[in-house]
UniProtKB/TrEMBL annotation:
Transmembrane segments: 12-31, 51-71, 78-101, 198-221
Signal peptide: none
Gene expressing this chain: LOC104947887
Disulfide-linked positions: C142-C161
Subcellular location: Membrane
Name this protein carries in UniProt: Tetraspanin
Membrane topology: Multi-pass membrane protein
This protein's GO CC annotations: plasma membrane
Record key words, sorted: Disulfide bond, Membrane, Transmembrane, Transmembrane helix
Species per Swiss-Prot/TrEMBL record: Notothenia coriiceps
Coiled coil: none
Main location as per UniProt: membrane
Record's keyword annotation contains Membrane: yes
Length: 231
């Protein structure tokens, strides 16, 4: 068959990158999904993370399939690989769009509405309170929107609000110094960072997938030309 060895092994190397990249996507997205409380994953952003897990698994599978198709010069495997890349490319576009939407003002308004339903914090389940107290300690903040009042009253404000760093914005609550900054700023900072990561992953692998589709089409055309020349 009149198949270019350069195109063949370029496609093989791209598929190897897809396979390794799939491992990276799957590992990162699974870690974020498992630790969604630490990453402040909202209900609006969770579908993008779940979709990224699926895309990572499919990228690994199709990367392996593409390697086999390139090495064995199989039209069937290469055609399946091309269609798989096209589907995954559209999925990655969806991830990028979901990540971008999560950064809009309207989406942030929805997040704020959901968080207001959690007030007062002192009436939430204990596991939620403990998780949020960890956020307060690590972020040097207190409450969601207006500070310690989000907990209910001064008697139920936890020790996680105690101002342990005098260089921070602190305020006096009876005989205590507590953090005066609400945690909303921290939460939206995390949301923006995660959205940027999702968009970056979608953009980077989208370029690789386009190149992979181009090389697979070139190799398919060369294989078909070689088959016709033998007839």
């Amino acid at each position: 068959m009149a198949v270019s060895k350069l195109v063949k092994y370029l496609l093989f190397n791209f598929n190897l990158l897809f396979f390794l990249g799939g491992i990276g996507i799957l590992s990162f997205s699974a870690y974020v999904r498992i630790n969604k409380a630490d990453f402040q994953i909202t209900a609006e952003l969770l579908p993008a993370v779940n979709l990224l897990i699926f895309v990572g698994a499919m990228t690994m599978a199709f990367g392996f399939l593409g390697c086999c198709g390139a090495l064995h010069e199989s039209c069937c495997l290469l055609a399946i690989f091309f269609m798989g890349l096209l589907v995954m490319f559209l999925m990655l576009l969806s991830v990028g769009v979901l990540g971008a939407i999560s950064r809009t003002a309207s989406s942030q308004g929805i997040v704020k509405k959901h968080m207001k339903d959690l007030l007062p914090l002192s009436e939430q389940p204990e596991d939620f309170q403990l998780a949020f107290q960890d956020v307060e300690r690590t972020s040097f903040c207190c409450g969601f929107f207006v500070g310690h009042l989000d907990w209910g009253n001064a008697t139920v404000v936890p020790d996680s609000c105690n101002c342990t760093d005098t260089s921070r914005n602190c305020t006096l609550l009876e005989a205590r110094e507590i953090f005066g900054t609400p945690c909303m700023t921290y939460i939206f900072t995390w949301l923006d960072r995660l959205s940027e990561t999702l968009i970056g992953i979608a953009f980077g692998f989208g370029i690789l997938m386009i190149l992979g589709m181009i090389f697979s089409l070139v190799l398919l055309c060369q294989i078909n030309s070689g088959l016709k020349s033998l007839i």
